[in-house]
Amino acid sequence: MDLATLLEQDPCPQPRLAAYVQTLSTNARVALLHSAEGLDLTPALRFSEIREAVDTQVDGFSDLGDRSLNTIDDSQVERVSKAQVCGRELLNAGAVACLILAGGQATRLGATVPKGVYEINFGPEGSCLLEILLRRLRSLSSSIPLILLVSSATEAETRGSLVRHEYFGYDPNLIHFCVQGAYPVVNEQGELVLSEPLKLATAPNGNAGFFDALRHTGLITKLKAQGVRYIHVTGVDNPLMPLCDPTLIGHAGVHDLDVVNMVVPAISGKKEGIVGLRHVSRIWQAPLVSPEVDLELPMASPSVLEYSELPPDFVMTGRYANIISHVFSLEYLAQLSVLAERAQAPLVPYHLAHKKATYYDYVKRMEVTSTEPCVYKFESLIFDIFHFCPIEKFGLVISARERVFAPIKNATGEDSIETARMAYHNALTK
Q1: What digits encode the pLDDT tens for the residues 252-293?
Q2: Which of 203, 213, 246, 320 could potentially form a cystine with 178 if both were Cys, beta carbons 3.0 to 4.6 Å apart?
Q3: Which GO terms describe its molecular function (predicted)?
């Protein structure tokens, strides 16, 4: 349903916004409606249901057997070697693609540019995160298809930076851009929020948006036709990330897995997601899908358990932290794509984030900057895509944190540019 249709309903589910729109001139009204063009308003219409959704039950993993590969364990050297051989064969055969989640801005670093092109100056060939990642990927193979998932806020500047820097040596014919979708922002009463007098407030739809972006652009079908069997999906903010790591790819190939997650040993007290099991109901996973559509959800699904979800007695010893490094088989994504077509509704749940905001109050006709959380943003998370994968088709690759994970999230302190720079240069000297 588009915004114009929504506001014309009787009774209108957004009466205060409808009253405001009625006071606008024709041109102003058109401008406001245009700002919502193509936007999925469903989360706003179902806000009460989403907010009242019952939490899922979570557990730690039982033993995954050979589907878990520990690269830190010296006793598994032969298994690691076997995975590496398989991974290199898949890479040489053109059976691997890479997708980098590059839709975020460097706002927490004090800038409004895309995080991927923000200047970090890590030395030669390390001017920005995208340079580091693209050059690393090219050093592995010169023929890996690369998908950059950007947002409306980062697309133009990311494209421009890559053109100016001649794609950091990467073949531009191998690069595909996908634009991440967005959801509306609502206040605590479920009313749509305006960011400006004639502009609806929106927020990116979360990193699970990679799936719909691939599906709607036809890239799942196109990559499969090119012989791609696996795609490595990872974030842009980790300069240590081993993109399309042969061990990771090969582990999927050796065991014919649909989803493989690279993880690191968890640190007690650190606020990070932990891989585990989630007991998912269909109404929680896909609340808008008709009950007549069989989602074929497992009894217990592999997932990432957010720090805030963990029970007080959850033991961190022997647990593993998520670092946003996931391999999906193209066949798995293709099967989900068929299911999504049949369902004609999102296959992933909406998560709510309660945030502070600067917005336009269309009742008081003034801009407001809140000091406390006052709006809700909707997002879907990448591990929600795991939930259709039977545990028998899921695997882990355990890696040393200092070798593969040094994210840039903050301007100073933990997970900052300086801590990542130190880890980056330490890794180069080893």
Answers
A1: 999 999 999 999 999 988 889 999 999 988 888 988 888 899
A2: 213
A3: UDP-N-acetylglucosamine diphosphorylase activity
Residues 212 and 356 in one domain: yes
For residue 10, what is the DSSP state?
S
415 and 375 housed in the same domain: yes
Which carries the bigger pLDDT value, residue 311 or residue 190? 190
Residues 12 and 112 in one domain: no
Q: What HEC string does 328-386 produce?
A: EEHHHHHHHHHHHHHHCCCCCCCEEEEECCEEEECCCCEEEECCCCCEEEEECCHHHHH
**Whether 33 and 61 share a structural domain:** no
Instruction: Answer for the pair 282, 289: CB distance below 8 angstroms, yes or no.
Output: yes
Q: How many helices (H) and strands (E) does the chain have?
A: 15, 20
Total number of domains constituting the chain: 2
Specify the pLDDT at position 16.
Answer: 95
Task: Report the candidate in 229, 232, 228 with the shortest Cα–Cα distance to residue 261.
Answer: 232
178 part of a folded domain: yes
Q: Could you tell me the pTM of the whole model?
A: 0.94
Can you point out the beta strands (E) in 81-171? 96-101, 146-150
CB 178 within 8 A of CB 213: yes
Residue 49 lies in a domain: no
Helix or strand or coil: residue 28? helix
The whole-number pLDDT of residue 345 equals 87
Number of CB atoms found within 10 A of residue 400's CB = 11
> What are residue 327's DSSP bridge partners?
232, 260
Instruction: Answer yes or no: is 414 within a domain.
Output: yes
| Domain with 31 in it | 1-38
- E-assigned strand segments in 33-164: 57-59, 68-70, 96-101, 146-150
Q: Are 179 and 212 in contact (CB under 8 A)?
A: no
Q: How confident is the model at residue 365 (pLDDT cuts 50, 70, 90)?
A: very high
Distance of CA 2 to the CA centre of its chain: 26
Same domain, 376 and 341: yes
305 and 253 share one domain: yes
SS3 291: coil
Q: Which residues pair with 396 in a beta bridge?
A: 68, 261
Whether 390 is in a domain gets the answer yes
pLDDT digits (tens, 9 = 90+) for 222-232: 999 999 999 99
